[in-house]
Amino acid sequence: MYSKNTIYIIGDSKTASNNPIMQQFNAFFIGLVVDRTSHLIVDADCSATISLTSSFVKHLFVGHSVLDLDTVVNEINTRYFGSSQKALIVAFKNAQIKYKQIIES
C-alpha cells in the first residue's frame, strides 16, 4: 500500500478534559505516513469520535510537506473549527519534531 520510501510517525497532544476525544483516548493523536524523499504527507489519520473528523483531517494534511509548518497550521486555522483545533496543531508540531529527528539521524 505504501512505498518503501515512506515512514509512519505519530504526533500527540492533550485537549480539554471535557472533549469526547480525551474521554475516549486520554490524548489526541495524529498518524502521518510521510515520503522520506519528498517530505510529503501521503496519508493521515487522527483519534476522533466521528469518522467525518478523521476524513476531513486527512484532507487537511495529505499533499503538504511535513516540514511546512506555516502552511499546515494555516490550513488548520482556516478550515478546521472542531473543539480539538489547538490539539491538532500541537500534535502536528510534535510529529514534525519527531520527523526531523528521524531524517537527521
Write the layout of secondary structure elements.
Blueprint: E1 6-13, H1 20-25, E2 28-35, E3 41-46, H2 51-61, H3 69-79, H4 85-104
Helix pairs in contact: 3-4
Short précis:
By secondary structure, this protein is α+β, with helices and mostly antiparallel strands.
Structure write-up:
By secondary structure, the protein is an alpha+beta fold. The protein is 46% helix and 21% strand. It contains 4 helices and 3 strands. The protein has helices at 20-25, 51-61, 69-79, 85-104; strands at residues 6-13, 28-35, 41-46. The protein has a 3-stranded antiparallel β-sheet. The protein is globular. It starts with 5 loop residues before the first strand and ends with a helix. 25% of the residues are buried.
What tags apply to this protein structure?
alpha+beta; 105 residues; 4 helices; 21% strand; 3 strands
